[in-house]
Backbone:
């Protein structure tokens, strides 16, 4: 249990809920409004539903690639709740919940996955590399960790402009081994940039466990070397994540500088649809983490607060299924490819001659020979 | 009109643009209080403050990555990489991030930034202070690559680069930073990107060059003239996007082409130029295209003047090509 077993250290794990969803630390309870509590739960259930449905579609050959969030819903939604509308996010590929929470639509979400004619990214990125400027959900790249120092630059810009914006960046435990992580935390420490670093420590970077990723007892403690606070939180406890995230964002906005949050959670599924964890991981490990399921725990909490009922659950699930089915149907009805000419657009703001020449050559070829197939 | 060297012209452009546009910020190693190791950013911090002229921690990755974040957010960063030879730790951030942001976000996130960096040999700098790696960047979709050869162009091209909506690598010929001097207008003016300049008109051979090589080429052109060869010297100024019209028009006129660059020969930018000439002016050619370049070795310290194309090597290539 690479992620679960942490050596004793000086950064205690922040928890609000116990495993049964009861508040064990009322002082830490972020006191989220009833409507938001229910909305957080709704998004957790939605994410779980999307994971099941889309992984199945990938297996059926209806989708090229997918990455699940299963087990990490509380980290995504708890932190998303604390972010303000004007805040910026430099995400990795495992925070679709943050985008959906902030208003990313299901239909555009699916169109991105399909890379079809209605894909906001015009079919230029693999599935799950969402980018939504209107909610400040910045573009995702596949190389791990590159977004971390970029987020610090954006935070520095916000600081210079004094516009009260905080920047959050998300990454996994594997990213903490990259030079970009070190560089980002170092620059942020020097500039006291309004930046919150959210590390989803889910125990695994594809097949490599945390114990082979770092010699540190925790990820949070790495912050101290850069002169910034490091916080360790139960990543499967949405209220605890919301609480530490809000605190970190308040510090950032108050000019008190950056924070590193280590959300201790677990990647219950494969790294991606192309991965097979049975080749490297004891199957009893994800089983054990099922008992610490973040969605179940949050449901129990809502139940204890009398905000949950069997009837509401049924209604909620039906509504989600209906929304997802309708959005999927609309997305699948779109033409499967964007126009060929769009391949040459947005390389630069204005298309230089050599791209126009190449575009015209391709269009001429297609006009002569008809559409190209998958086989070459 | 004042006479300036390239350093003064770059400094003047930065000051004017920072005054005109408050989004413009400068960042890099030693660029603030010290004004840069070549003094290109001298007095800027005094005038614009520490928030707009930032001494960063020593990390090229960090300089470029944070500049990307600033550009994405809405500033106009002008990061400096102290020597282009130090740029490699930031290569990922330049070619895979800055150059791709607009495209991969479906046009939602442009990344306008100008990376200033001194390049080139002849200053006794050894391998790590002498290279000319422009071809690594001209191979990158989404980047623009600009290399001025003198103070007037340095100022006008830098202003165009900072105002451009796409990321620009602005490579400064450090060997002639102070040696190249000419009259430079005091106020703002721009030299458009993507436009070459005919530095000297001629009938017999087209000579394509950029940056510090222009000055070596001028000497070679004079010597060739003594041998009765009339050379048309073209200063490309922007390598990407290339001013293909000027290049091809000149080659069609002369029927002969020589390319001079400091970078190693194999897969250098000269190779691309020859390929384009063959594609677009093959039937006009009266002689095989020639390249005069650095060698396919690491950049040497003691033997740097043997490594670099000198006027004699270029002159021989011009005369041989003319008499082919």
Residues:
């Amino acid at each position: 249990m690479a992620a679960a077993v942490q050596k004793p250290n000086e950064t205690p794990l922040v928890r609000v809920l116990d495993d049964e969803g009861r508040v064990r630390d009322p002082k830490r309870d972020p006191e989220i409004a009833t409507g938001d509590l229910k909305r957080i739960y709704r998004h957790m259930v939605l994410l779980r539903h999307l994971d099941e449905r889309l992984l199945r579609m990938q297996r059926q050959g209806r989708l090229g690639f997918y990455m699940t969030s299963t087990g990490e819903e509380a980290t995504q939604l708890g932190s998303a709740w604390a972010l303000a509308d004007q805040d910026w996010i430099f995400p990795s590929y495992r925070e679709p919940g943050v985008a959906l929470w902030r208003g990313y639509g299901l239909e555009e979400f699916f169109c991105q996955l399909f890379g079809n004619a209605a894909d906001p990214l015009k079919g230029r990125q693999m599935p799950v590399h969402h980018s939504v400027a209107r909610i400040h959900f910045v573009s995702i790249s596949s190389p791990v960790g590159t977004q971390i120092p970029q987020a610090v630059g954006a935070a520095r810009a916000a600081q210079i402009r004094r516009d009260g914006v905080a920047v959050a960046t998300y990454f996994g435990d594997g990213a903490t081994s990259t030079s970009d992580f070190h560089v980002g935390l170092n620059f942020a420490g020097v500039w006291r940039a309004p930046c919150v670093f959210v590390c989803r420590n889910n125990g695994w970077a594809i097949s490599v466990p945390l114990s082979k990723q770092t010699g540190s007892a925790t990820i949070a403690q790495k912050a101290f070397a850069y002169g910034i606070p490091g916080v360790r939180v139960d990543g499967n406890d949405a209220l605890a994540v919301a609480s530490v995230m809000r605190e970190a964002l308040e510090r950032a906005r108050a000019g008190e500088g950056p924070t590193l949050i280590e959300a201790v959670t677990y990647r219950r599924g494969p790294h991606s649809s192309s991965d097979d964890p049975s080749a490297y991981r004891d199957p009893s490990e994800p089983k054990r983490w099922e008992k610490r399921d973040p969605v179940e725990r949050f449901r129990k909490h809502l139940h204890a607060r009398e905000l949950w009922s069997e009837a509401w659950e049924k209604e909620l699930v039906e509504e989600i299924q209906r929304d997802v089915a309708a959005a999927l149907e609309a997305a699948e009805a779109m033409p499967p490819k964007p126009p060929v000419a769009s391949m040459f657009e947005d390389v630069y703001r204005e298309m230089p001659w050599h791209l126009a020449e190449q575009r015209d050559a391709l269009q001429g070829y297609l006009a002569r020979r008809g559409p190209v197939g998958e086989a070459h | 009109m004042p006479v300036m060297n390239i350093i003064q012209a770059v400094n003047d452009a930065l000051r004017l643009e920072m005054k005109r546009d408050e989004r413009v910020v400068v960042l890099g190693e030693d660029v603030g209080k010290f004004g840069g190791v070549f003094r290109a950013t001298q007095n800027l911090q005094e005038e614009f403050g520490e928030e707009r002229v930032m001494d960063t921690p020593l990390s090229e990755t960090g300089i470029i990555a944070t500049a990307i974040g600033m550009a994405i957010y809405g500033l106009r960063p002008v990061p400096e990489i102290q020597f282009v030879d130090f740029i490699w730790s930031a290569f990922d951030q330049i070619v895979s991030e800055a150059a791709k942001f607009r495209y991969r976000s479906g046009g939602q996130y442009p990344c306008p930034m100008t990376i200033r960096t001194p390049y080139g040999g002849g200053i006794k700098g050894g391998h790590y202070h002498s290279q000319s790696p422009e071809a690594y960047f001209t191979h990158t979709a989404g980047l623009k690559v600009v290399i001025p050869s003198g103070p007037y162009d340095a100022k006008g091209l830098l202003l165009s680069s900072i105002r451009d909506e796409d990321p620009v690598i602005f490579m400064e010929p450090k060997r002639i930073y102070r040696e190249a001097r000419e009259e430079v207008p005091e106020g703002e003016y721009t030299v458009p990107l993507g436009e070459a300049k005919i530095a000297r008109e001629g009938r017999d051979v087209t000579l394509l060059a950029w940056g510090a090589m222009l000055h070596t080429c001028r000497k070679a052109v004079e010597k060739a003239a003594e041998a009765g060869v009339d050379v048309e010297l073209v200063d490309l100024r922007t390598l990407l996007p290339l001013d293909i019209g000027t290049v091809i028009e000149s080659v069609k006129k002369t029927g002969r082409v020589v390319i001079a660059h400091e970078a190693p020969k194999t897969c250098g930018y000269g190779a691309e130029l020859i390929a384009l000439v063959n594609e677009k002016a093959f039937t006009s050619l009266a002689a095989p295209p020639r390249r005069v370049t650095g060698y396919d070795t690491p950049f040497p310290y003691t033997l740097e003047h043997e490594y670099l194309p000198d006027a004699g090597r270029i002159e021989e290539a011009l005369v041989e090509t003319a008499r082919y």
Q: What stands out?
A: Chain B has a mean pLDDT of 98. The first strand of chain B starts at residue 3 and ends at 5. DSSP finds twelve helices and 14 strands in chain B. Residues 273 and 279 of chain B are 10 Å apart (CA to CA).
